[in-house]
Amino acid sequence: MPVVNETTELQQALEISLSQKTSSPCRVSGLELLAGGASQQTWRLDLEVEAGDWQGKYHLILRRPLGGAIYTTALDIAQEYRVVGAAVASGVPSPRPYWLLEDILGQPAALVERLVGESIGTRVVRNPKFAAARRNLPPQMGAALAAIHAVDWQAHGLDKFLVMPAPGQTPAQARMGQIETALDEVGEAHPALEYCLRWLKRNEPPPPASLVLVHGDFRIGNVLVDEQGLVAVIDWEFTHIGDYAEDLTYVLLREWRFGQDGLQFGGVSQPEPFFAAYSQQSGLSLDPARLFYWQVMGNVWWAIGLLNQSQRHL
Fold first, then answer.
1. CA trace torsion 30, 32, 36, 39 (10° rounding)
2. Could you give the CA distance from residue 9 to residue 64 in angstroms, rounded to a whole number?
3. Measured in whole angstroms, how far is the alpha carbon of residue 203 from the centre of its chain?
4. Which of 85, 137, 141, 213 could cross-link with 153 by S-S, CB 3.0 to 4.6 Å?
């Protein structure tokens, strides 16, 4: 019997499922596995729908679970699909979601618009062709983040499944509780992280005036970039409800400067243009102490992510 490889199986399964979704014969071509993240598999493909309301050609990205997650709070495929739909409907630059497929070879999958852009952080911060983009990205990303935080998460029903602080709990306390739980599950002594947790507890700022939709991993590497700058925000699997300052600091972590350590904003610039654009669009005045606090929190949270990845490997 002929051997059917993973790509062929996936193509056949997609054509069957999409034909049902669109009530039309469908043809999938150009199916290719791309370099992806630690928790999801990403494929590119072209789709032709022959007839009906969806008739036409589509350039798409397929995302499906890879197995495991960096954080236990990560969204599943269906939840992320709903978040992206709410963001796009609210004017956030992000790939348009097209179809959610409940079962493709035993796993759910989401099909979204394929946009042209670079997402590999080292290329964005080093390739000469992105020189203009590096100048434009800080204010563009500041404006995009303000748009994310303006999404009415309750009106879109996102509060039905997104993680958020418990009643009477601040976003910082919620995050510290997640860190403590994760440390306990690791089952190893990490005194540096315990020390950081003590500092975080002793220096917690006042809670924000209101809770916002937090992207949860807003940084270079999770945006699509062309030669003029920001194309779209991607990778929403860590979205939750929390403090706006949390989202302003992931991009500042040294881990996400891709070797350009002197440029605090993602290896492309200093953060002041990013903060200024965010403040202008959101109407908020930013407190440096609050931003520093969440930058410390972000480093500790990322350390937990690395511990989880090492545990998965072991």
1. 100
2. 14
3. 28
4. 213
Residue 149 has pLDDT above 80, yes or no: yes
Bridge partners, 54 (sequence order): none
List, for residues 168-209, the tens digit of each pLDDT value. Answer: 999 999 999 999 998 888 888 899 999 999 999 999 999 999
Give the pLDDT mean for 224-233: 98
C-alpha to C-alpha distance for 125 and 133, rounded to whole angstroms: 9
Q: What type of residue sits at position 12?
A: Q
- Here the tokens at position 183 are 């440390």
Radius of gyration of the chain (CA): 20
Task: Encode pLDDT of 62-120 as tens digits.
Answer: 999 876 555 667 899 999 999 999 999 999 999 999 999 999 999 999 999 999 999 99
231: CB partners within 8 A, 6+ apart: 93, 115, 116, 117, 223, 224, 225
CA distance 38 to 117: 20
Q: What are phi and psi of 240, to 5 degrees?
A: -155, -175
Answer yes or no: are the C-beta atoms of 95 and 232 closer than 8 Å. Answer: yes
pLDDT band for 37, please (50, 70, 90 cuts): low
Q: Measuring CA to CA, which residue among 233, 245, 235 is closest to residue 282?
A: 245
- Please give the model's pTM, rounded to 2 decimal places: 0.92
Under a CB-based contact definition with an 8 Å cutoff, are residues 81 and 62 in contact? no
The pLDDT of 25-47, averaged and rounded, is: 87
